[in-house]
Amino acid sequence: MNAKLFSDAMGELDCKYIEEALSYNKLHMSKRKSKRAAIFIAAAMAIFVLCGFAAYELGLFDPWFQKPSADPLQTVQSAIEGQGDKEYTVFVRVEEMKVDESETGRVVDRYSGSEFAKARGWTDEYLAEHFVVVWAKYYVEYDHTKTFMDDGYTEQYFYLIQDPETGKWEIIDNTSPNTSASP
Length: 183
Known about the structure:
Elements: H1 3-58, H2 72-82, E1 89-99, H3 101-111, H4 115-120, H5 124-130, E2 131-142, E3 152-162, E4 169-174, E5 178-180
Antiparallel strand pairs: 1-2, 2-3, 3-4, 3-5
């Protein structure tokens, strides 16, 4: 066999196998990357679900159970008393509540014309007529085998919006509780 013929034949074989190997490697690598991505996404979702459940169980994520009412004070009272229905609450008692006109004015001024208000569809007129801040002081005791939250007196601001169609007030936000052991 001629050396030149052999060299040409080997050159063609190399190119054929190299092209196949390169295309195989790309296909194999893309499958491996997509498999890794799927495993990462599944693990991240599992972590988020478990952390969310743990936060809820520990009381970190604590939705207010409320009964919207035509009276903003009654809405807040229902939310505070609703804390008593949670498995980690032993006792809850509302001490004082009032509509805080100065805090309402301050927050309405702050939200008026803001991007936040626009994103929620609140006009300045809507805020002036359908937004109120309620200050509340209440006493609460917890089952410390189920939560780390402290017993005692709690003071908190609740931010409420009134539905113009039904006239009912609903809590949309609240401040972090300011707690103490004494009245």
